[in-house]
Amino acid sequence: MEQCIAPSPTKGRPREFDLDVALTAALRVFWRNGYESASMADLTAEMGITKPSLYAAFGNKEALFHKALDLYEREKLAYTVAALEAPTARGVAERFLRGALQIHLNTGDPKGCMGVISTVTCCGAEAESIKADLTERRASSEAALIARFERAEAEGELPDGLTPFALTRFLYALLQGMSVQSSSGASCVELQQLVETTMLVWPTR
After folding, report:
1. What CATH code is carried by the domain that includes residue 133?
2. For position 8, what pLDDT does the model report?
3. Are 122 and 171 within 8 A, CB to CB?
4. Are residues 32 and 105 in the same domain?
5. Domain shared by 64 and 96, yes or no
6. CB 43 within 8 A of CB 61
7. What integer pLDDT is reported at residue 103 of this predicted model?
8. Do residues 98 and 133 share a domain?
């Protein structure tokens, strides 16, 4: 792993820390608290570094969040890429939902979706760039899903009158609802029932 040597705030031996470990710790704080509620004191305590070391290695809080969000997408949302490769629209939805379910059931991670949590809690003007980044990332993901459902439509999978856009919004509403329920303390059984029920009523021709 890449190592970073940041200057100590006091005289003496420079402090060494692992960039990857520190970034993973920052991810947990942002995921748990959202962007605005994650204080610098929370971040430095969880990361085990000083504020000057954080700035030297990652830039400011905003830059650190963007890097943490990259890590979140790369490690936690990898299932979304594989989901798009499912042979049917129903298979795509099932992979999305079961992938999200595994994230919510992982006891080692904070509950809910980092993107949803941060979007809901970003209210101040200083968080405009954060909201813009989250919106752009979501739009990109939705565009990929719409394109996949357009292929399903062309292959005759979708019922008459159901558009790829509407189906994408439906699936995202389910994913966001699962995130909110997970954050609110829904049990594993309740979340699993949501997935199973969705697959039973998933629209097919």
Report:
1. 1.10.357.10
2. 45
3. no
4. no
5. no
6. yes
7. 87
8. yes
Q: Kindly state whether residue 97 falls inside one of the protein's structural domains.
A: yes
Is residue 63 a contact partner of residue 104, using CB atoms and an 8 Å limit? Answer: no
> Stretch 22-27: mean pLDDT, rounded?
96
Record the tokens describing residue 157, joined without a space.
């999978």
For residue 22, give every residue at least 6 positions away whose Cβ sits within 8 Å of its Cβ, in sequence order, or none.
Answer: 4, 47, 48, 49, 54, 57, 58
pLDDT in tens, 78-120: 999 999 999 999 999 999 999 999 888 877 788 778 877 666 5
User: Is the full-model pTM beyond 0.85?
Assistant: no
Contact 169, 159 (CB under 8 A): no
What is the length of the chain? 205
Q: Same structural domain for residues 42 and 101? A: no
Inside any domain, residue 2: no
**DSSP codes, 30-82:** HHHH-TTT--HHHHHHHHT--HHHHHHHH-SHHHHHHHHHHHHHHHTSHHHHH
Structure token pair of residue 200 = 């039973």
**What does pLDDT average to over the chain?**
86
